[in-house]
């Protein structure tokens, strides 16, 4: 058990180092050596924990954003979970403002969508074991990806628009969008 704690501490050290560096420099300028030097570990230690910077970013999304909200989502506290998620992003505003600028094959958006989709699949599997939807095409994978895409889109748009509303208000907007039809939303435009 002690080794697991040490691995977690090293993961967290590397994550904190990476976050601090990304707040000051673009992703492409940050080297593994920069991350390990700031974390106070040797370079091979990084590769014992992560394949590359993008795997470290996946860890941050999963560990810092999604693991804390999983119990809330499992207990049908969706709005509270989203408020916590958005609050966590706002609390590390400088990091996420830079993270959403990471483009390309391993963009922040694609990493976030993938990690959210994995979390939603876990929740679907735990809560709806063996159940299927009346629309057979609408399987667990499509459901998870749909909500992961919409959740990530809303969160990233919110960050790019300088956090114009509070995390609680954003979770209410997301709830409204997911519970309303497109026609309902369009009919309510003023």
Provide keyphrases for this structure.
single chain, about 190 residues, mainly alpha, about 70% helix, about 0% strand, globular, DNA-binding, HTH-type_Tx_Regulator
Task: Lay out the secondary structure.
Blueprint: H1 2-22, H2 32-39, H3 43-49, H4 53-66, H5 70-74, H6 78-91, H7 93-99, H8 108-127, H9 140-160, H10 167-179, H11 182-187
How would you sum up this structure, described in words?
The protein is mainly α. It contains 11 helices and no strands. The mean pLDDT is 92.
Question: What is the percent of helical residues?
Answer: over 70%
Poorly predicted regions are none
Structural class: mainly alpha
* Major sheet: none
> Could you spell the SSE succession in H and E letters?
HHHHHHHHHHH
What integer value in Å does the Rg equal?
18 Å
Q: Give the terminus-to-terminus CA distance.
A: 58 Å
Average residue pLDDT: 92
Count the beta strands.
0
Q: Assign an overall shape.
A: globular
* Strand coverage percent: under 5%
Number of helices: 11
